[in-house]
Design a protein that fits this description.
The protein is mainly β. 9% of the residues lie in helices and 51% in strands. It has a 5-stranded mixed beta sheet, with no helix packed on it. The N terminus is likely disordered.
Length: 376
């Protein structure tokens, strides 16, 4: 007599659902492209010297899909509101091309400016493709007649600041940099700049107090000493300028600088013995999750070099993503298990977040980990 085996109906449906889910996962994976298959004619553009008042300039990048799968551009992020991105098509079939144009408005900026554009898409081995452009911006505003075309006298007080932001660009820890803010007294009495508060320790103003007579122009000069910075990566802030201006006596000046380590003098032998940052996968897939759900994942960071690996700083592009238990020093050959946490509250659809790690590895001092999830 042959024994009959029972197959519970619920178990059959569970198995079928698992097989279908697995099939959908592999089908979705097959529809992703490698970042190496999406070739750009350029990734960096240098505009050279341009005037702040000269109007918009366009950074234009052309891409070709050299792969066998459609490339789908899901989003284009930019560094600031001064840049407006456009794309000729969001679906780029194999063999096709697309053009990405970033319109940059330099008005109100002076000095070296660097901006990034991030192209997000259905990559299987990267979070995004980063494009960059830079310019040396000069201001030709030299008289109150030019300024009067843009404001009413006394509208923002009688002390006119020709710019309210200083961008010191990319520096290494031994660098010194200098910048200035031109000021004009458009009032009827002397204006005295008596104090600047919220000034970081690495930034010094060269002379105070300053007295500016009516219809006179003077400048505030600032010196940045990068050796006084105790971290690396981008730094931003705002300082307050105290004056006796009748209206708006306190003015604001913002500043920005990116500090890096100096590896230029390192020889081949020193680099071979340097610390080495290693993770198995720079893309962390958290899968599908419900809105409001918090999900965590572990990543193992190993120092495969011959000197201690220093993790100076960890940044994320969203407060919803956090990387914990990693800052500090990792001995040669040792590993540290760090935990990444993603909070999907108020999120919906495909999510891509960047976790940036700053290290003393000369081959990859800045490591970007990609966090991916689909929020239902």
């Amino acid at each position: 007599m042959i024994a009959k085996t029972k197959f519970p109906l619920k178990a059959m449906f569970r198995n079928l659902a698992f097989i279908l889910t697995l099939g959908l996962y592999f089908a979705a994976s097959a529809q992703e492209v490698s970042i190496k298959d999406i070739e750009f004619d350029k990734s960096d553009i240098d505009f050279g010297t341009i005037p702040a008042e000269g109007g918009n300039v366009d950074a234009v990048y052309t891409l070709v899909n050299k792969g066998s799968v459609d490339f789908k551009i899901s989003d284009i992020e930019v560094a600031c509101g001064c840049t407006h991105p456009e794309v000729s098509k969001k679906l780029v079939k194999p063999g096709d091309t697309a053009i990405i144009k970033a319109q940059f408005n330099p008005f109100g900026m002076v000095g070296t400016v660097e901006k990034w554009i991030r192209v997000n898409g259905n990559f299987n081995d990267a979070l995004y493709k980063e494009l960059r452009f830079q310019a040396e911006i000069t201001s030709r505003v030299g008289s109150i007649e030019n300024m009067q075309k843009k404001y009413y006298r006394g509208q923002y007080g009688y002390l006119v600041m020709y710019q309210q932001h200083m961008n010191f660009g990319n520096l290494v820890q031994d660098d010194m940099a200098r910048d200035s803010i031109p000021l004009f007294n458009d009032g009827y009495h002397d204006i005295v700049i008596s104090e600047i508060t919220d000034l970081p320790p690495f930034l010094q103003v060269e002379q105070l107090p300053i007295t500016i007579k009516p219809q006179e122009t003077k400048s505030l000069y600032f010196t940045l000493n990068a050796s006084g910075v105790d971290t690396i990566g981008p730094l931003y802030g705002e300082m307050k300028v105290k004056t006796n201006d009748r209206f708006y006596s306190t003015k604001s000046i913002s500043y920005g600088v990116t500090i890096g380590l100096n590896f230029e003098d390192w020889g081949r032998w020193k680099k071979r013995r340097a610390a080495q940052f290693h993770v198995e996968n720079k893309t962390i897939n958290l899968g599908n999750m419900k809105s409001g759900e918090v999900r965590e994942a572990d990543i193992v960071v190993t120092n495969t070099g011959k000197n201690p690996l220093i993790i100076y700083r960890v940044d994320t592009d969203c407060s919803c993503a956090v990387l914990k238990n990693i800052q500090g020093t990792i001995a040669p050959g040792d590993s540290v298990t760090a935990r990444v946490k993603f909070d999907s509250l108020y999120k919906k659809g495909k999510q891509t977040k960047a976790v940036t790690i700053y290290t003393n590895d000369p081959n990859q001092p800045v490591v970007v980990l990609g966090l991916r999830a689909i929020v239902d």
